[in-house]
Design goal:
heterodimer; A: 77 residues; mainly alpha; Non-ribosomal Peptide Synthetase Peptidyl Carrier Protein, Chain A; 4 helices; globular; B: 521 residues; Phosphopantetheine-binding protein (chain A); PP-bd_ACP (chain A); ACP-like_sf (chain A)
Amino acid sequence: MDAILDILEDLKPGEDYRTRTDLVDARVLDSLTILALVSELEDAFDIIIPAVEIVPANFNTLSGIWDMVSRLRAADL
Amino acid sequence: MESYFSVAMLGVILPLTVLLYQLVPPRVRPYVLLAASCVFYASVSGVLIAFVLLSAVSIWLVGLALSSLDRQQAAARAAAADSDARRAVKRRYRRYRRGAVTVGVAVNIGLLAVLRYLPHFVPAGGVLDISGIGVPMGISFYSLQAVSYVVDVYRGGVQAERNPLRLALFLSFFPQVMEGPISRYGQVGTSLSAGRPITVDGLWSGSVRIMWGLVKKMVVADRVNVLVKTVFSDHAAYDGGVIALAATLYTLQLYCDFSGTMDFAVGAGRIFGVTMPENFRQPFASRTAAEFWQRWHISLGAWFRDYVFYPVSLSAPVKRVTGAARRVLGNRVGPLAASGIALGCVWLGNGIWHGAGSQYLLFGLYYFVLIWLGGFAGLAGDAICGRMGVSRSGAAWRAWQRVRTLAVVVVGELIFRASSAGDALAMLGRLVGGFTFASAVDGTVLGLGMDAADFALVAVAILVLAAVGRARESGVHPLARLCPAPYAGRAAVVMTLFLVAIVFGAYGENYQPVDPMYAQF
């Protein structure tokens, strides 16, 4: 989870990613930031994030992002 | 083309369907909706209903194929010896599944392209001239729904449907087949086939919504029709002031006609227990062009976002471009620059979806440039205001953004309504170079199909629409508030709206009712 936090801090610093639950709904993560985040996550975790995963539920919280990454990693094994 | 707000629909098809739907057992109700949809479709497009059924069969077969491949893949992975073998299975079946979904998309986009666009590009009387077949009603809408179904099954977002008749109903549901909204199977599939009983609540709230749409169509859209047609059909005869007026009234007309039709779709769906997606959300409160498209024809924008923008952005070549742009230009400017590729695809597709005319390509290009460059301008503005310590969150700034966006939208609709890109550019040229209030001062505008009373009524309608929009923006739905528990009160609201449409509606020898404006797309 810390690796994801580092990526988020690098992309858009200054947000409290550990506690926020509205990262997409409050447009902290807009579509362009999400695209950059997807690119970073794919490189960092050696996964492919398909378009179907680009939904608010997967990006509103840090834990939601982590759950998505974990699920895609498990599915790839 | 027949409007949803016709005596045939409001007086015969809808009431008869409601009656029959309620009388039959729940498991038969979806088939009543399908039968009503087929009758309505055939009454407008005749034998062309075969193309809707062909689309339904195609996506049914592709859905079943994808489902079967999923089962085969699961069995093959379970039998695989190690993770390498499982990955190999996954790769193999990914190819098969991509092949299946490609067939589904190609069939439906192919039918759309051939029936809708080919006649524009082949010589009349030639071997490929199929203009005699005609264009099936709503093909641009149901084809996108068909594509969304096969892609959603491919992505795992929805289960493949085993009953082809349910898919036929999904594509042809009569309140939405003519102009949308472009719904997804995951949104409406279950409720369409649930056969829920009609409730008093659903009947009245649906009726109120339909009557609200009727008011917008008859009082506003039909009233401004003659002026809009007169000016756009002979624009060279008018100065920039009249063209600005016609473009503004056309924007209002399109909103009232299209959102009014959506009120019918949502209201009729509500009667049958089906929650249709909303297609408009106070579009004129938008502060940017990008925001406007999140509030106007929402289902089309969402379709392009989910099935074009994200897939293109997340394709391997574009991701490489995005990564390189980020390294060179940084985390904000880099992705924005690279997003131009996907955004270009979206707006090219959006323009072509509306038609083969050059004005639609110009319309797409206009919004592509505005939204893409607007992103850079927004970043630059943030940086400059941040350094200067200027706030851009004040009421005055927000008001300016709304006025600016409204002007941008009116120009866009002028391009959209023009007969060609050349006509649009000529009108824009006169708007800039020949703007004058002379026609308003000398009374010319009162001879274009609207008298002073018409203008006054439209002004009042704008104030009412603005007040309703402002309330809804604040989270209050005035029509819902006007529907207190007593059913007599709700009936009074429906009757009042109906009377408003009858008393203040524009019909008779001085007016020409507008055909359903989005049904041509």
